[in-house]
Design goal:
The chain is mostly beta strands. It is built from two helices and twelve strands, in the order βαββββαβββββββ. The protein is globular, with a radius of gyration of 22 Å. The strands form four sheets. Strands 1-4-3-2 form a four-stranded mixed beta sheet, with helices on one face. It has a four-stranded mixed beta sheet with strand order 5-8-7-6, covered by helices on one side.
Length: 182
């Protein structure tokens, strides 16, 4: 199955961009910068090679890059205390576009900063993941669907259990799995 690998952005100043993404945002310089004569300079920043940002400085003569009208933003998930992280960025002189606020879904805090090239970067607090260790010695619950595909008339029951009311279940859209509502 295909997977997302990286986003490539043109930068106006390679050193300033590397400094922003590594020393300010806290990503690692994974590789580079490399100089490809007559082509471009390239560097790679990220948490690891599973998903990263490719920084490209075009060596051809051109006016400075401007943010395109179809590019929205990059997104980076932080770790640790989110408000403290954003405050540390302010102290480092990072331009804050939108200070910490709750996401539209209300599930976690987000903020927006601007990189040296004018690209908005969304910062997200770490996603709260379910702690499976809270159910020691018990396998994850499994559910099965009957009568359709989650539309009207669909029944969902837990394997090996009596039928539960659908109102006691919540759907996780990304996986279409079911977990008991709290």
């Amino acid at each position: 199955m295909p997977k997302f690998l990286h986003t490539s952005i043109f930068v106006n100043d390679m050193n300033e961009s590397i400094d922003f993404y590594t020393n300010k945002l806290g990503l690692k310089l994974l590789d580079g910068p490399y100089h490809y004569p007559g082509n471009a300079d390239m560097a790679f920043v990220g948490h690891d090679w599973n998903a990263y940002v490719e920084l490209v400085y075009d060596l051809e003569e051109h006016p400075p890059y401007h943010l395109g009208n179809r590019y929205e933003h990059l997104a980076i998930e932080g770790d640790g205390d989110f408000r403290e992280y954003v405050e540390s960025l302010k102290a480092k002189g990072v331009k804050i576009l939108k200070d910490v606020y709750k996401s539209p879904s209300g599930t976690r805090a987000i903020a927006f900063v601007e990189d040296p090239n004018g690209i908005p970067v969304e910062l997200l607090e770490p996603r709260k993941r379910p702690n499976l260790s809270e159910r020691p010695g018990r396998a994850p619950r499994r559910y099965r669907y009957t009568n359709g595909s989650l539309g009207a008339g669909t029944r969902c029951t837990r394997s090996g259990a009596k039928r539960r009311s659908p109102s006691r279940l919540s759907i996780l859209p990304s996986t279409r799995s079911h977990v008991p509502a709290g």
